[in-house]
Amino acid sequence: MKIRKAVFPVAGLGTRVLPATKAMPKEMLTIVDKPLIQHVFDEAKEAGIEHFIFVTGRNKGSIEDHFDRMYELDATLEARGKKAELEILARDQPQAGAVSFTRQQSPLGLGHAVWCARDIVGDEPFAVVLPDELVLHKPGCLAQMVEAAQQLGEKSNLIAVQEVPADQTHQYGICAVGNRHGKMFEVAGMVEKPAKGTAPSNFSITGRYILQPEIFKILGTQERGAGGEIQLTDAMIGLAKAQKFYGVEFAGERHDCGSKAGFLRANIAYAMARPDLRDGLREEMRKYVEG
């Protein structure tokens, strides 16, 4: 099962990190020296994705600009002999025709955002990557999922899952665990934010999915769910009646960058993973921790 396309829902308002996102898309907030959207783009590229589909909304134009060439900047850097900076920009530049943008014109939730990409995805399996969730690991989370999909060799759907403390399961979508296949298991059921003490396991659904195109038909007729939005989890529950779902326990450190605390932790974690920044940052943090 080859996965060529990935959908990035980037139309959200980023209300959890206001006021930073009042005039800037949350996906353009930086983790060290890259915006969130670049981190997940790189993860998808590493996983072999060939076509990157961004579902945007109002005031998200800077995301399109980020993946475009800025000739004035290139010319200025070249004139100043900034070869290293030019190489960074060239490395991050998508190939011509590899990026598509479509609009989610109403804030109707994640499921609706994915549905908005239906005509670009077409009739083939695809990935969904949520930009405000980062996984620090090589190979990346999506690459691990693509490898798992290839091992299965069957038409199926995959969800990245991670164990969370039992007293936090009410904050997440949760999978019920069926038959195990190494680091994967058959999903025996899904529930969105179960009431405390009722979760079927402590495996939470994280922001990486590989889905079959039949999900679009379900999303197209689905009624609004929690929060008055079209929920992707509800559509997956419907699709699971006809197709298998597998949970993939990925290796790596997950960071929820949609919250202020998670955003700060991600900056520290990604900086500490950089040999050129690690020692200096450790010294600076020591001043605050020991002070």
Explain this structure.
By secondary structure, this protein is of the alpha/beta class. It has one domain: Spore Coat Polysaccharide Biosynthesis Protein SpsA, Chain A, CATH 3.90.550.10. The protein has eleven helices and 13 strands. Strand 2 (30-31) and strand 3 form a beta hairpin. The longest helix has 13 residues, at 260-272. The N and C termini lie far apart (54 Å).
List keywords for this structure.
Spore Coat Polysaccharide Biosynthesis Protein SpsA, Chain A, 291 residues, five-stranded mixed barrel, 13 strands, alpha/beta, single chain, globular, two-stranded antiparallel sheet
Please summarize what this structure is.
With 291 residues, this protein is of the alpha/beta class. 34% of the residues lie in helices and 24% in strands. The strands form 3 sheets. Strands 8-11-9-10-12 form a 5-stranded mixed beta barrel.
